[in-house]
Each structure stands twice: as structure tokens, then as C-alpha cells.
Amino acid sequence: MKQPCANCPFRKSIAYALSPEKAHDILQAITHDKAFHCHKTVDYSESHEGRVTVESKLCFGAVLFLENTVRGGCRSNVMFRFGLISKEFELNDLRKEESVYQSFEEFLEEVSY
Fold first, then answer.
1. Angle between helix 20-30 and 104-111 (nearest 10)
2. How deeply is 50 buried, as exposed, middle or buried, from its count of CB atoms within 10 A (0-12, 13-18, 19+)?
3. Residue 67 included in any domain
4. For residues 5 and 40, what is the distance between their CA atoms, to the nearest angstrom?
5. Dihedral sign, CA of 5, 8, 10, 15?
6. What is the pTM of this model?
7. Residues 9, 36: Cα–Cα separation, whole Å
8. What is the mean pLDDT of each run of 10 residues along the chain (113 residues)?
9. 10 is a domain residue
């Protein structure tokens, strides 16, 4: 994983519609040591909420978002630190020019319907 997927909810160029509650839940999770997985790697076959599997990968858009918005970046989240330790991604892989949201306010304003 070297960049957010083409339709990552953290990319500015994507018209992504989340309920305000879901958008807040995502931010609450990633700022409180919860993992946030790429939606393309979550199993949605049985539920619209999805199920994380052993093949699920951390959301690289969330990694970049944390790097842009939170003191300590992605290392501020224990689950993303595990991702670094397990070599799921490396800090050298971060392409900071990726067009991801630069603030919580911007994310909430743009993705909420």
C-alpha cells in the first residue's frame, strides 16, 4: 500500500457521502487507537457494516490524514503503529502530496450529507 485507493473517503477529489454520525465515528475511531480498514479490503457480503478479515488492510488515506492533522501523525494511533511494526506500510511510503483532507473540519464538511 503506497497511496489511498481511488475512491478513499479521505481523498478530496472523491464525492463520498457519509452520514454525519458515520463521519464522526470514523474520526473518533482513528483518534482513539481503533483500526480503520480500507473499504476495499472489508467483507461486505453479509452486512452493510462489513466484517474485517485477516486479509483486511489499514486505510492508507486514514494514515495520511492522521499525518496531516494529528500531533504524532499515524503513530498517535496504536493500531497504525502495529501496521508500521508489521511492515503493512512504511513512513517512507507516505506520499504527502496526496490530496487528502487537511483538517477534521474539512473532512466533516465535505463527506457528510
1. 150
2. middle
3. yes
4. 8
5. positive
6. 0.87
7. 12
8. 82 81 93 93 89 92 92 92 91 76 90 75
9. no
